[in-house]
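The passage that follows is intended for readers who have already worked through the single-chain material. We present the inputs for a multi-component assembly, then the predicted structure in tokenized form, and finally a short commentary. You are encouraged to pause after the input and sketch how you expect the pieces to fit together before reading on.
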Amino acid sequence: AQTVTQSQPEMSVQEAETVTLSCTYDTSESDYYLFWYKQPPSRQMILVIRQEAYKQQNATENRFSVNFQKAAKSFSLKISDSQLGDAAMYFCAYRSYNTDKLIFGTGTRLQVFP
Amino acid sequence: DAEITQSPRHKITETGRQVTLACHQTWNHNNMFWYRQDLGHGLRLIHYSYGVQDTNKGEVSDGYSVSRSNTEDLPLTLESAASSQTSVYFCASSDRLAGTDTQYFGPGTRLTVL
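Having made your guess, compare it with the prediction:
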């Protein structure tokens, strides 16, 4: 069975700085998808970024980018130029290629200080 | 705009009572999911459905049931509520085969079992 591990329960960053959130996963599959979701205090789950395992290129969405290391089974999220609105819980999630079920990590709470 | 809604947003009930949480989506997605979110566990899959009349157990299905009589709705029933079922519940939908492999989440229902 696949598992997702987020080893940083909490992280903090100063406004305008860069922070990296870690995620590792375990799978025997070769094709899959990885996601980062943001959950602000409103509780709404918001998709931040997704990565297809068969793509070598790291996904980027504005200030958010990932470092996808398939061999190491690592999928970290980098937030550049951090803003106060980035403060939230961040969840890493895994999805097998031929299913729609998501497997989530335990989350990392990010605090952003002015 | 298409959306996914949950009701109620907050519910307090007593041990042993039957509780039903509603989930309604207007995306016309075939796939619907129920997760529970607990501190230290992230989101865990309770039940899911890949279409009308289809239901499947997830990772933490004991004490819960679902039924899918139409595309739009997937109600979650707690047959006899227990204090261990105090949690935040999220409904989500997706439709990978229709080209929408991202899961869209509802706003969540906070359930307290006294």
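Commentary: Chain A has a mean pLDDT of 94. The interface with chain B takes residues 4, 6, 33, 35, 42-45, 47, 50, 91, 95, 100-107 of chain A (CB under 8 Å). How closely did your sketch match?
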